[in-house]
Amino acid sequence: MNEAYIKHVFDLGNKTAVVTGAGSGIGQGIAIALANFGAHVVLTGRRIERLEKTRAQIEGMGGSANCLAADVRNKAEMEQAIRSVKEKRGSVDIFVANAGFNVRAELLDTTEEEIDALLATDYKGTLYGVMEAGRVMKEQKSGNIVIISSINGVSAMGNLAVYSSIKYALEGVVRSLAASLGPYGVRVNSCAPGVILSEMNQEIYSNERNREAKLSTIPLRTLGVPMDIGNVVACMVSDGFRFMTGTTVLVDGGELLRPMQRQERV
Prior knowledge:
Number of strands: 7
Strand order of the largest sheet: 3-2-1-4-5-6-7
Number of helices: 9
Shape: globular
Largest sheet: 7 strands, parallel
């Protein structure tokens, strides 16, 4: 193994990364992975006590991180947060738009309040951070943006109707922004996770019947964990992927291969 080559290609040392929703779940996994690859990670979210726990984990492993309270739903807060990182650190090299949640409901059963909440956090909340990070990166003529999408933004589920439609929209944002920022040396991609065990779905998959039903649709016969996404994202923003932009990376254990939908030869 050529360790020097691997370090040269994947090392994120001297890079500053901002991760939204870094206090738990996928966001926490991404932050830890980026720190393990050498980046200084700015952990953002609404609950500072959760961010502090992530920071403690990172520093306990010898990494570097700090916490910055910011609500993705508040445009002014996100703009101020990203600009402050630029001022204090000198650059914003990596921005990961991760914060979000889902509502399990068919479209005809979704309430107006649920639609508004999903739009505020998952769509507008993603755009506010991505837009300001994009402006900073355009100025500095370098950077990486990763939007955490979902396999439901590639193949929609009936009972995740509004959530799926927003993820589809964000895939469009990735393509559009990648085209406009490419000439400035900025790459924009998305990572689309399948089922990743976290606080959001712990209750669902602690039920053995639900767990087995889901496993039956996944060729690898396992559910993902946050570090599965974190490690992929850390690779995506490294020089190892320097020629990739406007792309979606699926990390789903093969779920979209639809292994149970087979037709017999006649």
